[in-house]
């Protein structure tokens, strides 16, 4: 990277080679573990069919508008989050690092879940988990201990975990076009076909319809519960990968002729469709399980989070004719979905470090993946890994990301007053035109709701703790996560730029004529 004064617009930045390349990569980031193991359980617990209402409201009032906001910042200021924010308004660099550090935290544990999926993919061939799938998962496989800081690494987890990081490193080092885009162009269609196959198989199992009834039967009373709305908003944020700085980075690799808003609508629609499809597949399968055990679906346990994928599903697979094939395809899908998401996070982190410190692409890929790999192994492949993972996830996704979205919308709309410029930018490059309602949504509706939501969550975490875990443990892994992200963001933005910090940055000159007209 040079520090010359050559016009920045002429800068050679890698790009996606087509809109399809960008859209597939953005779908790859969005469709992940969150769609498969988070959505079905959250929807079921939060009102079933009635949950679709808060879910749609969250998608339309916050999800798509903030996705557009991420895209507009990335495409206009053409850099990974910290530099893009800095080019927009210097002090917002810290927000960029806050989002990137939050993504970094997520990557460190997300990799562990992909590693579990990789192990289970192999176990599925001969149903290695046996009859007691819970005992196998927490006992034999993860060797879960007490909430303590264990340094006993479990090799069965650590080995696939290191392999995941090596694979991530290779893709990021290859770059946007030859690495990330290529992986997505192959993996996303493959995932679509594999998952569709699973859902069709699930729908033909006896009892499938009972599962779907349990899933879709609306509990209208749930709509009066604030927690249900909170669940809908956090699901949308995590699932669309928004307010993490990741979509800012992805959009920065778009060419001048980008049609950002239309791509955004395609991505959002694809992500939600996949989510609903996952809900149908998972509940059809659970209907079969209830049918085998002659109980109601509502009497089943273990319908959320890792337990759903790694305990309940193996148990169903045991009872299913041709279960091994189903298991292989299911865990294979988890790997594909998770891998295309984690490479998006790592690209965001590695590109930010590369720009700030003036490193080469390979150099920053090796540095960042190396640090992530070491932390992943030390924190999440030990006997205390599952608990730590659950606690970090709770704080990162319910506190960290909500805080990020609030700060982001308030700074852009109210403090630095960039929303009109960004709106015109989007409209100058896109066919789907964004009206002023967009500014009302990102400036008022979304932040107002997010503040209420964050307040409620903080009160409950402070008063009730989490899952009965000891306070010191929550301080360390829960609140500690937030403190770590804030401190790291402040420190990283205080370090002087070693890469190009072009204050005279010119957004696309031809677009700008329209924007400032
Ligand atoms: N959206 C991904 C999922 O649903 C997770 C993710 C979060 C990816 C944040 C990138 C950034 O699993």
From TrEMBL:
Membrane topology: Multi-pass membrane protein
Keyword Ribonucleoprotein: no
Entry keywords, A to Z: Membrane, Transmembrane, Transmembrane helix, Transport
Subcellular location: Membrane
Residue stretches in coiled coil: none
Repeat among keywords: no
GO cellular component, one term: membrane
Bilayer-spanning residue ranges: 21-40, 52-73, 94-123, 153-174, 186-208, 228-253, 265-290, 324-353, 365-389, 395-416, 437-456, 476-495
NCBIfam families: Na_transp
Protein name from the UniProt record: Neurotransmitter:Na+ symporter, NSS family
Organism annotation: Ornithinimicrobium cerasi
Lineage: Bacteria, Bacillati, Actinomycetota, Actinomycetes, Micrococcales
């Amino acid at each position: 990277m040079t520090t010359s004064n050559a016009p920045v617009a002429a800068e050679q930045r890698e790009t996606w080679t087509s809109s399809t390349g960008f859209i597939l990569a953005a779908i790859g980031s969005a469709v992940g573990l969150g769609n498969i193991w988070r959505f079905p359980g959250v929807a079921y617990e939060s009102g079933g069919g009635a949950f679709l209402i808060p879910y749609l409201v969250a998608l339309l009032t916050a999800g798509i508008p903030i996705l557009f906001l991420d895209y507009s910042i990335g495409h206009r200021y053409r850099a990974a989050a910290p530099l893009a924010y800095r080019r927009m308004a210097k002090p917002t660099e810290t927000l960029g690092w806050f989002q990137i550090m939050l993504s970094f935290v997520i990557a460190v544990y997300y990799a562990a879940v992909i590693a579990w999926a990789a192990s289970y993919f192999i176990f599925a061939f001969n149903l290695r988990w046996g009859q007691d799938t819970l005992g196998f998962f927490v006992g034999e496989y993860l060797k879960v201990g007490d909430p303590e800081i264990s340094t006993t690494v479990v090799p069965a987890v650590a080995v696939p975990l290191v392999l995941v990081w090596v694979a991530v490193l290779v893709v990021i080092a290859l770059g946007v076009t030859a690495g990330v885009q290529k992986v997505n162009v192959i993996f996303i269609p493959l995932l679509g076909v594999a998952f569709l196959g699973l859902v069709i198989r699930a729908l033909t199992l006896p009892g499938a319809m009972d599962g779907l009834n349990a899933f879709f039967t609306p509990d209208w009373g749930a709509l009066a519960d604030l927690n249900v709305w909170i669940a809908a908003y956090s699901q949308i944020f995590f699932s669309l990968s928004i307010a993490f700085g990741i979509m800012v980075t992805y959009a920065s690799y778009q060419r001048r002729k980008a049609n950002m808003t239309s791509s955004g609508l395609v991505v959002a629609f694809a992500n939600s469709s996949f989510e609903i499809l996952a809900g149908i597949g998972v509940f059809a399968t659970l209907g079969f399980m209830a049918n085998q055990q002659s109980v109601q679906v509502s009497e089943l346990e273990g319908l959320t989070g890792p337990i759903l994928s790694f305990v309940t599903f193996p148990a169903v697979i045991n009872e299913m004719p041709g279960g091994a094939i189903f298991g292989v395809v299911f865990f294979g899908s988890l790997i594909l979905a998770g891998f295309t998401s984690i490479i998006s996070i790592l690209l965001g982190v590695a590109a930010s470090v590369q720009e700030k410190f003036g490193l080469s692409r390979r150099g920053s890929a090796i540095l960042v993946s190396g640090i992530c790999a070491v932390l992943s192994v030390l924190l999440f492949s030990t006997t205390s890994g599952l608990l730590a993972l659950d606690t970090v996830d709770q704080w990162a996704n319910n506190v960290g990301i909500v805080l990020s979205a609030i700060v982001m919308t308030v700074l852009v709309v109210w403090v630095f007053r960039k929303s009109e410029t960004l709106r015109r930018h989007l409209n100058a490059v896109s066919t789907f035109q964004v009206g002023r309602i967009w500014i009302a949504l990102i400036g008022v509706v979304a932040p107002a709701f997010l503040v209420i939501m964050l307040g409620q969550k903080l009160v409950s975490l402070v008063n009730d703790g989490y899952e009965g875990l000891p306070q010191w443990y929550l301080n360390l892994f829960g609140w500690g996560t937030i403190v770590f992200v804030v401190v790291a963001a402040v420190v990283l933005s205080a370090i002087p730029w070693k890469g190009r910090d072009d204050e005279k940055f010119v957004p696309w000159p031809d677009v700008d004529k329209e924007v400032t007209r």
